[in-house]
Design brief:
Distance between the termini: 17 Å
Helix content: 25-40%
Length: 202
C-alpha cells in the first residue's frame, strides 16, 4: 500500500458534513460525563468539532429563536493558553449566555480555533465548562422545553488530553541531556481538543 492509498483509505470525512439538531442532541448526551471524541454514522468528530457544532446551533437559536435545520462541521484547533479554573457553582443569565454564543461563533469563524476563555456576563469560563453548559441547553431546547432566564453553569471534563504524556522521553540525538519542554507539553495537551481516531473507509 502506498502513502497516497493509505490517506485515501483513512481520509477524514467529517469536515463539511452537516448535522441536524437531532444528531447534535445525541452528541451532547455524554458531555456531562466527559468531553471526548465521538463517532457518528461513520464520521469521527473531535471535541473541538463538537464544540463548533454546538456553538453554531446555539448561535442560530440566539439570533432567530429556533435551532437551525442543519449545522455544517468545521475543523477547529484547540485553545493556546491554559483555561481558567472552574469558578464553582454559579448561575448565569440566559441573555449573557446567548450573547456569548454569538460572540464565540464569530470567534471560531475568524480564528479557526477555540477561545482560551469565554466571557459570561463578566465571568471568564474555560471552553470545557462552556461546552458542558451549552450541552445542557441543547438538551433542553431539543426537548421542546423553555429555557429559563437563569440556569446553572456546568463543569466540563476534557479527557482527550490524557493521550499526551506529562513527561515524555526526549531521547532523540538532537536534544541535550536533561531536556524538558513543559510549555510544549502544555500546548500539546490543549490541542487534545483536536484528537479523533481515523476510520477505515467502508
Amino acid at each position: 500500500i502506498t502513502a497516497r492509498e493509505f490517506m485515501e483509505l483513512y481520509a477524514d470525512r467529517s469536515p463539511g458534513r452537516t448535522f441536524p439538531p437531532a444528531e447534535i442532541a445525541k452528541l451532547v448526551r455524554a458531555i456531562h460525563r466527559e468531553i471526548t471524541y465521538q463517532i457518528v454514522d461513520g464520521a469521527s468528530l473531535s471535541p473541538s468539532e463538537i464544540f463548533g457544532l454546538v456553538v453554531e446551533a446555539l448561535r442560530g437559536y440566539a439570533e432567530h429563536g429556533v435551532l437551525p435545520a442543519s449545522v455544517p462541521n468545521r475543523v477547529l484547533l484547540g485553545p493556546v493558553q491554559k483555561p481558567p479554573t472552574f469558578p464553582g457553582e454559579r448561575e448565569i443569565a440566559r441573555k449573557d449566555f446567548e450573547r456569548a454564543c454569538i460572540e464565540v461563533a464569530a470567534y471560531l469563524r475568524k480564528q479557526g480555533r477555540l477561545p482560551d476563555a469565554v466571557d459570561l456576563g463578566g465571568m471568564r469560563v474555560g471552553p470545557a465548562d462552556f461546552l458542558a453548559t451549552a450541552g445542557e441547553v441543547v438538551t433542553t431546547l431539543f426537548g421542546n422545553e423553555a429555557l429559563p432566564d437563569r440556569f446553572a453553569l456546568k463543569r466540563g471534563y476534557l479527557t482527550t488530553d490524557q493521550y499526551v504524556q506529562d513527561y515524555p522521553e526526549w531521547n532523540w540525538v538532537v536534544f541535550p541531556e536533561g531536556f524538558r519542554a513543559p510549555k510544549i507539553i502544555e500546548l500539546a495537551k490543549l490541542q487534545g481538543w483536536t484528537l479523533n481516531p481515523a476510520l477505515l473507509a467502508s
